[in-house]
Amino acid sequence: MSQKAMPSISEIVRRFLGSKDSLRFRMSSDAAASFTIKCTYLTLQFFAGVLLARLLGPEDLGLYAFTLAIVGFAAIVAELGFPTFLVRALATHRATHSSDELRSTLLTALLFVPASSIVLCLILMGTTRMGLSISTVGILMVPAIAMNAVLTGAMRGLGHATKSQLADSLFRPALAVSILFFVFLSSAEISTSTALTINILSSALAVVFAGALLWSCWPDKIQLNKNRRFRPVQVGRQSLPFLLLAGSQVVNHHTDIVMLHMLTTEHDVGLYRIATMLADGLSAPLIAIALVTAPILAHSHALKDIRRIQKVLVASHIVAFTAMLLFCIPVILYSNELITLVFGSPYIEASAPTSILAGGRVFYALVCFTGVALSMMDRPRTATCLTLVTVTLNIALNYTLIPAFGINGAALATAASAIGVALISAVYIAYAFSIDVSPFGYRSLVARI
């Protein structure tokens, strides 16, 4: 009897992915492309941070970071929830062939977001006259950031997940890094306003690029100038609920920077910016795992396969915890040497908060995907409420710890609030679905075999 030949690796991959026209192939290719783009984006952001730290110094870097935080808040408000809303609305209208609704939704976003951006720019310029320490130049970034987000959301809603990331995640940071690197090589000194001007230029050109990409992927049968049902007020009301979740996430991300600026000095903000930059870089494995885990959780929930959900989350948390140990322990042990080598001796005081944030990432990895799980398991309101709890806890801890411990207190507050809310999410999942999703949940899985 002849033995059946073993299939080649390429044949196994082809069987797993399916044909080029299959949904599995498109999802797999989009996931791989998104992961590559995300890693490239994080790398470019890190290089930009290093160049800015070298060029500006701690005090000017602190003002730069604070300005970006305020601008980030304003941009989220200016977006009015449209980036996330467009993903769902355009995908729905495209599936139901509702051309009029699709046009009306996009035109409303393109009308409301620039208008709200201009209003917020005027408000922020007014606050600078009342003593708010924020660069006036940086305020001009609000429209560019908001429009980039809207155009990205529109392309995602039209089914172009990879193309939607090219402008804001590749073109913009690559252009900014190129300009900063040229300035660094020329040994020129720059101010905070100059650094923000570079950011504005790269963001504005990214808007133009994103607009061209959206035009290239716009359905030929749908003409924007032939809209018979333009209902901006109704569409605007539908987008506003998405503002709450997006806003709370951004507020939580920038709370420590803003609180430090209020309670300490711009020098301390600059030092802390280095710590958060390194901590964000350490989170790359968590982002990669989440990209793979999220669609599996959504599919398993649709099939009501709770045991598979537990398996996926337990395995994901074990891998995340292991990866964080491997990445974070060297940073914790050699933070002084790492910061001096990469950013320079003026930032040596950032080593302690870096170690605190890195240690927090290790413990956070034990239950870090519970927020993603709640969103994928049809619990978006719960995820939003927990995000608001995180914001509240983060503000309270920062207000308490920063006066006593400075930048170390900000790091402790950020790490503690993230871990605390992730644990609450894990407890909620255990209560609602009767499963343990932490790495210790493997024991119940083994017991069922």
Question: Considering DSSP H and I runs of 4 or more, what fraction of the residues is helical?
Answer: over 70%
Helix-strand topology string: HHHHHHHHHHHHHHHHHHHH
Low-confidence spans: pLDDT under 50, at least 5 residues?
A: 445-449
Which percent band covers the strand fraction? under 5%
Can you walk me through this structure?
There is one protein chain. With 449 residues, the chain is mainly alpha-helical. The chain folds into two domains: 22-239, no CATH class; 260-449, no CATH class. Helix content is 80%, strand content 0%. The chain has helices at residues 9-17, 23-56, 58-79, 82-95, 99-129, 136-139, 141-157, 166-185, 192-217, 232-239, 241-263, 266-282, 284-302, 306-333, 335-342, 351-364, 370-376, 380-405, 407-433, 442-448.
Keywords:
single chain; 2 domains; 20 helices; disordered C terminus
